[in-house]
Design goal:
By secondary structure, this protein is α+β, with helices and mostly antiparallel strands. It has 7 helices and 7 strands, in the order βααβββαβαβααβα. The protein has a single domain, classed as Gcn5-related N-acetyltransferase (GNAT) (Aminopeptidase). A hairpin with a 2-residue loop joins strand 3 and strand 4. The longest helix is centred in the last third of the chain and has 12 residues.
Length: about 170
C-alpha cells in the first residue's frame, strides 16, 4: 500500500534512507559520504523545504519512501529509498509511477553520477539524462546543491521536461 507519510513516520523514514544509502558507500566521492548519510537535521530541512514523503507499506510496515517536491515550474523526485531487505521487489517503481500519475508538471531527478544502478532505474521508467550543460544550470536552480555535488551528479528528466524544453527552443 502506498500512503502519505506523516510526522510520526519521521524515525522510520530516517532509518530507511540511511539503510538504503549504504549502497553509496565507496561508490560516490568519499568527500560526499558521511555517516549517517542523511542526518536528522537534513531530513527535517528537506521536509521543511517542501519535500512530501510517500511510503510503501508491506504488512503494515513502511519499507520504502520517495519524496516529491514542487519547485517553481517543475516537480522534483527526492530521496527515493527502499530498505535493503526489500529491494528488487518493484517497490521503487510502484512509488515512482504513483507519484508521476499525480504530477502535472515536468519532473526532474538529480542523482549521483556514480550510482549507475539508480540512473538505469530511472531510465527504465522513461527518464532521460539531460546534457552536462543543462545539468549544471538545473542543479543550482532547483536543488541549490553545492558545487562539488553539481560536479558529481546527473539530472534526468521525464518526457514532459523534454517536450517543454523543445517548445522553449522554438
Amino acid at each position: 500500500m502506498i500512503r502519505p507519510c506523516t510526522p510520526t513516520d519521521f524515525e522510520t523514514i530516517f532509518e530507511i534512507v540511511n539503510d538504503a544509502a549504504m549502497a553509496y558507500k565507496g561508490v560516490i566521492p568519499a568527500d560526499r559520504w558521511h555517516d549517517p548519510y542523511m542526518p536528522k537535521d537534513e531530513l527535517c530541512a528537506a521536509i521543511e523545504s517542501g519535500v512530501a514523503f510517500w511510503g510503501f507499506e508491506t504488512d503494515g510496515v513502511l519499507v520504502g519512501v520517495m519524496g516529491v517536491q514542487p519547485v517553481q515550474d517543475v516537480t522534483l523526485i527526492r530521496h527515493a529509498y527502499v530498505r535493503t531487505s526489500h529491494r528488487r521487489h518493484g517497490i521503487g517503481g510502484q512509488l515512482l509511477r504513483f507519484l508521476l500519475a499525480r504530477t502535472s508538471t515536468p519532473t526532474l531527478i538529480g542523482i549521483w553520477a556514480a550510482a549507475d544502478w539508480a540512473v538505469r532505474f530511472y531510465q527504465k521508467h522513461g527518464f532521460r539524462l539531460v546534457t552536462a550543460e543543462e545539468k549544471d544550470r538545473l542543479l543550482p536552480k532547483y536543488w541549490g546543491v553545492p558545487q562539488r555535488q553539481i560536479e558529481t551528479s546527473v539530472v534526468l528528466g521525464d518526457q514532459r521536461w523534454f517536450d517543454t524544453e523543445q517548445a522553449r527552443s522554438r
